[in-house]
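Renewal narrative, Specific Aim 1. Our central claim is that a sequence can be written position by position from structural information alone. The example that follows is taken directly from our test logs and has not been curated for this report. It begins with the structure tokens describing the chain, in the order in which they were read.
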């Protein structure tokens, strides 16, 4: 996939220490229950290793905020049950979701990786907004 095609697919991008994190986010009306005060988004993450050594994802740290200013911090091992190993030039994709009790919010955070020498380093997850689109019509 070309860089232009990647940028069209993934709206939010951050590179830290040679690892790029790309995020695409979409509101999911069919999984939301607006009448019950529940809004749901799905996000697609791609991690790319642009380094000269192999890296391994160890942990994730998310800071999720809603329109009322409520903050939810989520820490855990790996992502979607995996701790992917990325050789130079490799990427890893996963999809997950977030439900809020307001029609908008935001997410950001970081991943902890280890490099080929076993040293830990943090990789930023770019800030992205969770916004219900305006109704058409």
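The sequence written for that structure reads:
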């Amino acid at each position: 996939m070309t860089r232009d095609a990647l940028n069209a697919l993934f709206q939010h991008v951050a590179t830290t220490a040679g690892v790029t994190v790309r995020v695409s986010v979409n509101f999911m009306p069919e999984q939301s229950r607006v009448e019950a005060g529940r809004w749901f988004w799905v996000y697609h993450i791609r991690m790319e290793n642009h380094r000269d050594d192999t890296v391994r994802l160890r942990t994730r740290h998310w800071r999720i905020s809603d329109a009322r200013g409520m903050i939810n911090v989520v820490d855990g091992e790996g992502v979607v049950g995996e701790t992917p190993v990325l050789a130079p030039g490799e990427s890893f994709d996963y999809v997950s979701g977030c439900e809020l009790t307001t029609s908008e919010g935001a997410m950001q955070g970081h991943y902890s990786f280890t490099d080929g020498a076993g040293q830990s380093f943090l990789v930023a997850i770019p800030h992205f907004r969770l916004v219900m689109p305006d109704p058409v019509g």
